[in-house]
Amino acid sequence: MLTVILLRHGETAYNANGNQYCGRTDIALNARGVDQAKRMQQLLKEYTFDAVFCSPLMRARQTAEIASGAVHALQVDKRLIEVDFGQWEGKRASEFIAEDPQAWDNWLRSPEDYAAGTIGETGRQVIERVNSFYEDALERYDGKTVLIVGHNGINRLFLANQLGMPLANYRRIVQENSALTLFTLDKAAGFSLLKLNA
C-alpha cells in the first residue's frame, strides 16, 4: 500500500488576481503562498515520508521545498504538470466564457472528450498521464509514504476519477492552496480517501 500526502501548491499572483487560469504559465508563489507552504511544513511534522515529488512548474517546486523541509531531494515529474488550458491561459473564467461560451460548456459537460480552452488537454489525456505517474509511484514505493505537490486541475481530475465520479463533476472537489489531501493506493484494494482539503 502506498500512502500519499497530496498538496496543491501555495497561492500565486494569478490565484489572488480573480483566479486567472495559470495552467502551464510558470510563475512563483506570492508572499501569501510562501506563508501557506510554511504553515504546511508545520502540519507535516506529524508525518514521515520517504520521497517528495512535484510538478516541474516553479510554484509547485517552491511549495514542495518549503513544505517538505527539504529533508528529501525533490523528484520532479512532468506528468504532474498542470492541465494545459489552451486559450484560457492567463484569463479569468468571465473573460474566456464571454469569448467562447461553447468551449466552456463543452468542457463542463464532458471534459474527458473536449480540450480545455479548445486547444489544450482533454480530461482523458490528463487522467492517463497522472494515472501513469501514480502507477509508477505505487510500484516503486509500495509500503511507503510519499509527499506529492501538484495543481488544482490535475489533483481534482485524478481524485474524481479514483472516486468513480463522472469527470464532469470534478469541480465539486475543493482543494485550496497548500491544503492537504491524504489517500492510499493499494494493488488489491485500490484507492481510499482519508482526508480532503485539510
Shape: globular
What string, H for helix and E for strand, traces the elements in order? EHHEHEHHHEHEE
Question: Mean pLDDT, nearest integer?
Answer: 96
Oligomer status? single chain
Helix content: 25-40%
What is the CA–CA distance across the termini? 22 Å
The low-confidence parts are: none
Q: Can you summarize the main beta sheet?
A: 6 strands, mixed
Largest beta sheet: strand ordering: 3-2-4-1-5-6
Structural class: alpha/beta
Secondary structure tally: strands = 6
Distinct helical segment count: 7
β-strand percent reads: 15-25%
Rg computed from alpha carbons, rounded to a whole number of angstroms: 16 Å
Description of the molecule:
With 198 residues, this protein is α/β, with parallel strands linked by helices. It contains 7 helices and 6 strands. It has a 6-stranded mixed beta sheet. Helix 4 (93-99) packs across helix 5 and helix 6 packs across helix 7 (152-162). The longest helix has 19 residues, at 123-141. The radius of gyration is 16 Å and the shape is globular. 41% of the residues are buried.
